[in-house]
Amino acid sequence: MTSMKTGLTIAGSDCSGGAGIQADIKTMTTNGVYAMSAITALTAQNTTGVRDILEVSPQFLKEQLDCIFTDIRPDAVKIGMVSSTELIEVIAGALRQYEAVHIVVDPVMVATSGARLIREEAICAMQEKLFKIAEVITPNIPEAELLSGIEIQTQKDMEKAAEMIGRQFGCSVLLKGGHQRQDANDLLWKKDGAMRWFYGTRIENPNTHGTGCTLSSAIAANLAKEFELEESVKRAKQYLSDALEFKLDLGAGSGPMNHAFAWNKNE
């Protein structure tokens, strides 16, 4: 009999397959981890935008989490889109109850367009209930500006914001620099105060739907495989770069990546 490391994604469904639960499952699978999911919402969306969202009830989300943790225990947990306080409280309660480990929170709060994706009271609940049990959170620059209250223009600004957020919530912070025009450098601020930059070359690819979901899921997958946080981030960033480098072109808008790029290269 063969055992396998396991990962759980708690997030919304993207029916077009590029982000959310679908991207998370593809990412965990191609990173060698058995993937499970607890769905927080159904979305009707494609590469051109989101048309509608249908949230699950708090009770149904709790049932999903109970089913997972009492049968196939996750070695790591990734949390993505959760837009209501009630759902956040259910998630936090279940993760504490089952003493979940290697929790990665992608604080999906601000869309690439700048639009808010979460209610104000839910942001407070996310900070108090989820950040404080997370091993690492992965905000992008607009989200880090929202969390830290400072404008981020330079690498020094990124360092200051990451430290402020990390010290406030007691977790490591991977501040993603993809919103900067010149580069794709990410900063990891660790709970012990150490900082590490992960330098990347910007890949000219307009199809970036699901990059945040993919990166956080890849980090969780590598943590599940017992890599240290820095190594998990390094591997996840390389995986994301390779997926973008494949330059898949689907849909009329900002299209998805090919999460299975390695399989296609071998054909």
From TrEMBL:
The keyword Nucleotide-binding applies. SUPFAM superfamilies: Ribokinase-like. CDD domains: HMPP_kinase. GO terms for cellular component: cytosol. Keywords: ATP-binding, Kinase, Nucleotide-binding, Thiamine biosynthesis, Transferase. GO terms for biological process: thiamine biosynthetic process. Its EC number is 2.7.1.49, 2.7.4.7. It comes from the Bacteria. It is an enzyme of class 2 (transferase). InterPro entries: HMP/HMP-P_kinase_dom, PM/HMP-P_kinase-1, Ribokinase-like. It catalyses: 4-amino-2-methyl-5-(phosphooxymethyl)pyrimidine + ATP = 4-amino-2-methyl-5-(diphosphooxymethyl)pyrimidine + ADP; 4-amino-5-hydroxymethyl-2-methylpyrimidine + ATP = 4-amino-2-methyl-5-(phosphooxymethyl)pyrimidine + ADP + H(+). Residues 14-258 form the Pyridoxamine kinase/Phosphomethylpyrimidine kinase domain. Pfam families: Phos_pyr_kin (PF08543). Transmembrane segments: none annotated. One of its GO terms (molecular function) is hydroxymethylpyrimidine kinase activity. Pathway: Cofactor biosynthesis; thiamine diphosphate biosynthesis; 4-amino-2-methyl-5-diphosphomethylpyrimidine from 5-amino-1-(5-phospho-D-ribosyl)imidazole: step 2/3; Cofactor biosynthesis; thiamine diphosphate biosynthesis; 4-amino-2-methyl-5-diphosphomethylpyrimidine from 5-amino-1-(5-phospho-D-ribosyl)imidazole: step 3/3. Belongs to the ThiD family. PANTHER family: HYDROXYMETHYLPYRIMIDINE_PHOSPHOMETHYLPYRIMIDINE KINASE THI20-RELATED, PHOSPHOMETHYLPYRIMIDINE KINASE. NCBIfam families: HMP-P_kinase. This is Hydroxymethylpyrimidine/phosphomethylpyrimidine kinase. It comes from Mediterraneibacter gnavus (strain CC55_001C). The lineage of its organism: Bacteria, Bacillati, Bacillota, Clostridia, Lachnospirales.
